[in-house]
Structures are given as structure tokens and as C-alpha cells.
């Protein structure tokens, strides 16, 4: 339920000018019922001037009359002034001063590990400008020699869900364009949840690398099968061996 502006002052006015129950006033102003009772007793909000919700377009007189006639009726806010704000700001997101020095490092990380992201996506993720991103892509940034790639999520510049959404969007764009991708590019286009859920790829030890396609020829296989193992042959001496030993 939306909360009226100047809730405590509104509760003071309702307690002084209506016969609403403490619960009705508490529910409408999002206060505790005991706090409203304290307002009625003069123990809470002493000296607070009442704020007329009718004159300030928060309630109508008819709504108050309905609630007075029915203690179970809940007051409904007519106009939520707190929801009215300035138009959504366009442009890069705001980055706190304490984190701005780490922003180039995060841009370098995104450019290195997610080159498929557009400059606009990177600018939206970490709150930067396209000329800065372009200078880091081309390695013409004035401090490029001292920069280290650091994950923007670890720096707190964006959320992991936002980064995953940008990567998935880039993956859809790549798929729609029909651009061929190698295995490394496909892995980069996976979200964190997808990559963590994948089974590790089996790898062949380097000591036996190249032997994965090794197989016996048909002749070798038949020869192995045609030569049965004779246990007696292991113990038979060569012919004439005893005669040579006799003087």
C-alpha cells in the first residue's frame, strides 16, 4: 500500500478531525497502532501540526465517511505524490567518486573478456563514455600501461545479473547475424549461471597426446587372435640344449 506524504502529521490530523479507529489510521499512515494511540493521548508527535489529507489531495471526504461508517474499511490513497518524480535520466549510470578510479580497469576487463559487448552496453554497465572505451580498445588511453583488467562485478560497478543480461543480449545478436564463432567465443557469450552449470570438458593428458586415434590394423588384430597362448612354451628349453652341455 502506498504511504501518504507527511504520514505522522496526517495521522495527527485524522485523529483530531475524524472518528476513525486507531487501526484504520495506522494502516493508512503505515504506523503502529500503539503509536497512533500515543498520538491520541498526546504522548507521541507532541507539537506536530496536523496535515490535512483532503486539502492536499491524499484522501476524499467520501472515503473518510465510508471508513467512519465501517471500521473494517481500509482507506485508499487518492494520489501518491511520492511516486511522482522527474523523468528517468538518460545516459551513463552514476558512479561514486570512490570507485571512479577503478572504472578503467573494469572497462579493460570487459573489452578483453567480452569483446562482443558494444560500447553502448559497456557504458551502461559501468557508467562511462564511448571515447574512453574506444581509447582502451585501441590501447591509446593515457594510463593503459598501468591498467589491470578487473571484473566490474567484483568492483561493485554493476550487478552480475546486469552483466549476464548484456552478454545474453550480445549472444542473441551474434546468432541473428549468423556470424561464425569458435569455442572460446561461445564460452564468453555464456552467462555465469550457464557456465557454472556446464560439465567440465574431458581433457587428454599431454603425455599421451596424439594417441587418441591410435588403433590396431586388421592384420595385427587377426595375428593376435590366431596365436593362442601356450603355457608350456614358457618352460620348454631350446632343442638340443642338454646335448650341448654334456662333455
**Uncertain stretches:** none
Q: Report the radius of gyration as a whole number of Å.
A: 39 Å
Number of discrete helical segments: 14
User: SSE string, helix = H, strand = E?
Assistant: HHHHHHHHHHHHHH
Biggest sheet character: none
Strand proportion, as a percent range, falls in: under 5%
What structural class do helix, strand and pairing data support? mainly alpha
Mean pLDDT: 75
How many structural domains does the protein architecture include? 2
Describe the global form.
elongated
Report the span from N to C terminus: 118 Å
**Percentage of residues in helical conformation:** 40-55%
DSSP strand count: 0
Write structural notes for this entry.
Residues 171-247 are annotated as: Disordered. This is Cytoplasmic protein. Pfam families: TrcR. InterPro entries: TrcR. The mean pLDDT is 75. The relative contact order is 0.07. The chain has two domains: 7-82, no CATH class; 90-194, no CATH class. The protein has 14 helices and no strands. With 247 residues, the chain is mainly α.
Amino acid at each position: 500500500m502506498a504511504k501518504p506524504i507527511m504520514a505522522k502529521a496526517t495521522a495527527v490530523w485524522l485523529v483530531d478531525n475524524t472518528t476513525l479507529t486507531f487501526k484504520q489510521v495506522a494502516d493508512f499512515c503505515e504506523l503502529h497502532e500503539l503509536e497512533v494511540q500515543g498520538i491520541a493521548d498526546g504522548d507521541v508527535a507532541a507539537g506536530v501540526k496536523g496535515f490535512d489529507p483532503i486539502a492536499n489531495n491524499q484522501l476524499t471526504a467520501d472515503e473518510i465517511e465510508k471508513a467512519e461508517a465501517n471500521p473494517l474499511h481500509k482507506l485508499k490513497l487518492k494520489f501518491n505524490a511520492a511516486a511522482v518524480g522527474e523523468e528517468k535520466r538518460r545516459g551513463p549510470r552514476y558512479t561514486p567518486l570512490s570507485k571512479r578510479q577503478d572504472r578503467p580497469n573494469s572497462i579493460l576487463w570487459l573489452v578483453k573478456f567480452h569483446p562482443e559487448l558494444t560500447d553502448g552496453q559497456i557504458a551502461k554497465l559501468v557508467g562511462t563514455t564511448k571515447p574512453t572505451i574506444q581509447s582502451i580498445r585501441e590501447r591509446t588511453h593515457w594510463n593503459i600501461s598501468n591498467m589491470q583488467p578487473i571484473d566490474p562485478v567484483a568492483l561493485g560497478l554493476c550487478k552480475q545479473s546486469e552483466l549476464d543480461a548484456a552478454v545474453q543480449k550480445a549472444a542473441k545478436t551474434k546468432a541473428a547475424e549468423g556470424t561464425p564463432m569458435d569455442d572460446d567465443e561461445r564460452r564468453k557469450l555464456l552467462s555465469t549461471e550457464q557456465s557454472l552449470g556446464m560439465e567440465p570438458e574431458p581433457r587428454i593428458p599431454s603425455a599421451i597426446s596424439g594417441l587418441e586415434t591410435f588403433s590396431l590394423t586388421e592384420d595385427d588384430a587377426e595375428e593376435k587372435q590366431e596365436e593362442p597362448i601356450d603355457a608350456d612354451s614358457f618352460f620348454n628349453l631350446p632343442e638340443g640344449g642338454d646335448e650341448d652341455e654334456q662333455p
